[in-house]
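A quick aside before the break. I want you to see a complete sequence-to-structure record at least once, exactly as it would be stored in a machine-readable document. Don't worry about memorizing anything.
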Amino acid sequence: MQLFKTPNIDFMKYRFLALAVTGTVILAGLLNVFLGKGLKMGVDFGGGTLVRVVFKSPTTTGDIRSALNTVGLGESTIQQSGEAGREYLIRTLQVLSVADTQRELEAHQELGNKVIGALKGDDGKAEAARGLKDLNNIDHAGLTALLKPAFADKAEDLAQKIIHYRTTKTPGSGIIEDFAKLTEAGVGADVIRELQAKTYLGKMTVVSRETVGPQAGADLRRKATLAVVWSLIGMLVYIGFRFKLEYGVSAIVTLTQDVLMALSVYSFTNREINLPIIAALLTIVGYSINDTVVVFDRVRENLKIMRKESFEAILNRSINQSLSRTIITTGTVFLAVLSLFLFGGKSINDFAFIMLFGSIEGVYSTIYLSCPVVLFWTQIFKPKKRGGR
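That is the input. The structure line, written in tokens, reads:
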């Protein structure tokens, strides 16, 4: 399938301008990483405890910080997320270093409990003393056990409906504000009466919590770096074997640039670097090399049939011949990732953002970096037989 007839654009004419733009972006990014605000490490790599909570009533950042001050965690990072004034991400800046990895994990879990306890305050203490359970924090197993005496075999299904409603359908995205609202979950008045007798609605719910100690964080950083480095080396070997050395060198330069460009742009967005972002970088590398291989295949074919043409003309011709295919594949990937970015929710937004940039940048690097690097190599080393390229 072709969107248009093969164009005749002189891409190589702008190679120096493209290299200047690339160098400027990467230099700005590196200066920002090492001399500016740097990369913002997520819990995966930076260590600490990340707790995501939703409040029943609107709450200010100041109120949350005041509560955390009571347990010595007032310096924690508090980030509003989701519905304004109700959903927050709280990351502790207190990193506990313990020699034993298991004890380190336990210490950070205790730290997370301190955060949750401080945010709850005295809420629910009187109700808990009377034996009531917090419906906004009880899990499926606990709710099933609570309903079983009154509803026997229906208890598990009822619990599933209520938990599903609480986590996906409530206005606060994870918290039940009023028992009467449970009719929207498809449960009857008898179930609501039973819940009113045995539970209460706490002022907040814990949507998620992550805990990573400094040792585990350092190990994850090392493994993530190795994953990227080994993927680049693997591409060098593959392209060098399938084509020639200059193509392998071009591929490694191109893919390294892909990673540096993505990280440079990402460093200015104040978004966190975590494991999904590393997965996105590796995806960008795979996508970019696929596009590069298609162009290199065209170059190899055209070297046999365009023997009288200059190598620069052959590169231009090969890129133009692949342009229709590139636009189709990149366009479909871009639209899919754009949907994730717009509608995928907070948890996947950072991944989708870097993939949006990478899908376009991968095409740019194939045209304006991989082919120019091969051209520069042939100009410098001047192989005797052009057909051997």
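Two observations worth writing down. The CA atoms of residues 45 and 220 lie 6 Å apart. The chain has a mean pLDDT of 82. We'll return to this after the break.
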